[in-house]
Write a structure and sequence with these properties.
4-stranded antiparallel β-sheet, 3-stranded antiparallel β-sheet
C-alpha cells in the first residue's frame, strides 16, 4: 500500500454462500478496473471470512490521491460500484462503506487554523467536516469557485443533475425504485428537483421580458387614429361574436342571438333584464351593464351558493371583486391565480400519495414512499412541459413546419399518461391488467383532485382581488 496523503475509501461486502465464487471473480475484476480510474493510487482486497459461517465477508480498500479526487470518486466511481453490486447480486450481497484517515492534525490543510470544525466543533479529518459537511478552511472562496459551485452541475455532463434528469425522462419509475433501494447519492434530492423544475416551468411559460422587464425596452410607438379605429372595430366584432355564442347557448340573456334561436329565448335561460344588460349565469348571477360596464349584484344572485361560501361572498364583496377585475381587465386576478397554482399543486401531492396508499394496501410501503413516486411523476410532468414549450419556440424561430411541430408536441403529450402507467408497473411490480385498473382509478382521482385544488386556487385569488 502506498503512503500517499489521500483518504482511504473502504467497501465491506457481506456475501451469501451460494454467490461467493461468482462475487470473488467480480471483485477481482473490480480491483483491476479501479486502478485505471484517475484519482485511485492503489487497491487492496481482504477476505475476512464470516462470523456466522454461512457466507463470506470481503473488504476492498481504495487509496485516493487526495481529497479533491476522493470527492469526485465519491459521487462517481464509488457510487457506480455500489449501484452495480445491487444490480448484479441484489440482496445476496450487502454493502457498507466508510472513509478512513489518520486522525492527526498534520493531515489538516495548511489554511486551517483549528483542528476542530468552526461550525459544530467536531474533530476535523480533512477538507470537510464529517459531521456537518462544512469546508474545513475558513478562507473566503474566490469568484471562480463561486461560479463553479453555481453552474458546475449544469456544465458537467456526469453531474448529479444530468444523472437525474435523463432517467427521470426516459426510464419511468427508475428514480423512485433506486431511491427506495438506497441508491441516492448519485441523484438530486426528490423534492429539491421538483421545486427547481416547477420554478423553471413557470418562468419559461409565463415570463414575458417586455412586460416584466419593460424598463429595458424602448416604448412602442403610439398607434395612429386609423390603427385605433381598426382595433376598436376588431374588438367590437370579437365581443359581439362571443355574446352571440353565449346567447345561443342560453348562458346570457340580453345580447342579440341568431335568428333561429330567437323563438326559443323563453326556454333557454333566465328572464331578460333589459336591452343594455347582460346576465351571466355561472353558479352565481352577475348582471353587467353593456354600456356602462357597471356590475349589478343583489342577494338573489348568490342565493344558490353553499352556506359557507355565501357568508363570505356577499353581494357587496362580489360587486367590489367584479369592479376590480373589470378595472384592469382581469390582469391582477390572473396574476393572483398564477401565484396560487404552485401551492395548489403542492397540496395535490399528498392527496395523490394517499390515493396510492389506498390502491396498494398490501404493498407494505409507507405513505412517504408513495409520496416519493408522486413527487417524481410531477417533476417529470414539469420537465416534459418545459421541453414542449422550448421546442415550440425554437421551432418557430427555425421555421420548422407547423404540422411537424404539432405532431412532436402531441406525441410528447401522449407520453405523459403512458409514463404514469409504466412508472406504476416498474415501482409496484404488479401485472398489466391489475396495474391498468389501478391506473384508471388514479387518473380519475387525479382529475377530481386537480379540479378541487384549482377551484381552491380560483377562490383564493377571487377573495384576494
Amino acid at each position: 500500500m502506498t503512503t500517499q496523503a489521500g483518504p482511504l475509501y473502504e467497501l465491506t461486502f457481506s456475501v451469501e454462500q451460494e454467490r461467493v465464487a461468482e462475487f470473488e471473480r467480480w471483485v477481482a475484476e473490480l480491483a483491476e478496473q479501479s486502478l485505471q480510474q484517475q484519482g485511485i493510487a492503489d487497491v487492496r482486497l481482504f477476505n475476512v471470512g464470516s462470523k456466522t459461517g454461512d457466507g463470506a465477508t470481503h473488504i476492498c480498500q481504495f487509496q485516493c490521491t487526495g481529497d479533491r479526487a476522493f470527492n469526485e470518486l465519491l459521487d462517481g466511481f464509488f457510487a457506480d460500484t455500489e449501484a452495480t453490486v445491487a444490480r448484479e447480486f441484489g440482496i445476496a450481497v450487502n454493502v457498507s462503506s466508510r472513509t478512513l484517515r489518520e486522525d492527526d492534525a498534520r493531515d489538516l490543510p495548511a489554511t486551517v487554523e483549528s483542528p476542530d470544525c468552526l461550525n459544530c466543533g467536531t474533530r476535523l479529518r480533512g477538507q470537510y467536516c464529517g459531521n456537518c459537511g462544512q469546508r474545513a478552511s475558513n478562507r473566503l472562496i474566490s469568484l471562480w469557485e463561486l461560479i463553479s459551485d453555481a453552474f458546475g452541475d449544469l456544465l458537467e455532463f456526469d453531474s448529479r443533475l444530468w444523472r437525474t434528469l435523463i432517467p427521470l425522462l426516459a426510464r419511468p419509475g427508475q428514480l423512485t425504485r433506486d431511491y427506495l433501494e438506497g441508491r441516492r447519492a448519485r441523484y438530486m434530492p426528490p423534492f429539491r428537483m421538483y421545486l427547481v423544475l416547477s420554478v423553471i416551468f413557470f418562468v419559461v411559460a409565463f415570463f414575458d421580458p417586455r412586460d416584466d422587464l419593460s424598463l429595458l425596452f424602448e416604448p412602442e410607438p403610439e398607434p395612429t387614429p386609423e390603427e385605433l379605429e381598426e382595433k376598436a372595430a376588431e374588438a367590437a366584432a370579437a365581443k359581439q361574436e362571443i355574446l352571440d355564442e353565449l346567447a345561443q347557448e342560453g348562458i346570457i340573456v340580453g345580447a342579440p342571438a341568431p335568428e333561429d334561436s330567437v323563438d326559443n329565448t323563453a326556454e333557454q335561460g333566465p328572464k331578460a333584464v333589459g336591452d343594455n344588460k347582460v346576465n351571466i349565469s355561472a353558479g352565481f348571477n352577475i348582471e353587467i351593464d353593456d354600456e356602462t360596464g357597471e356590475c349589478l349584484v343583489d342577494d338573489d344572485d348568490v342565493a344558490d351558493l353553499p352556506q359557507w361560501l355565501r357568508v363570505r361572498l356577499t353581494p357587496e364583496r362580489l360587486k367590489r371583486v367584479c369592479e376590480r377585475i373589470g378595472a384592469d381587465k382581469g390582469k391582477t386576478f390572473i396574476g393572483l391565480m398564477l401565484d396560487n397554482i404552485p401551492v395548489a399543486l403542492i397540496v395535490l401531492l399528498p392527496l395523490m400519495a394517499l390515493v396510492l396508499k389506498v390502491l396498494y394496501p398490501l404493498s407494505r410501503r409507507y405513505f412517504v414512499e408513495h409520496l416519493l413516486f408522486v413527487i417524481h411523476y410531477h417533476a417529470f410532468f414539469f420537465l416534459i412541459l418545459i421541453l414542449q414549450i422550448l421546442f415550440a419556440r425554437i421551432s418557430a424561430l427555425l421555421g420548422v413546419p407547423e404540422p411537424v411541430s404539432v405532431l412532436v408536441r402531441v406525441a410528447a403529450s401522449l407520453y405523459i399518461p403512458v409514463y404514469l402507467y409504466m412508472g406504476m408497473r416498474h415501482v409496484y411490480g404488479q401485472g398489466r391488467i391489475l396495474t391498468f385498473i389501478k391506473y384508471v382509478a388514479l387518473v380519475v382521482s387525479y382529475s377530481v383532485g386537480a379540479t378541487l385544488t384549482m377551484l381552491g386556487a380560483f377562490l383564493f385569488a377571487l377573495f384576494a382581488v
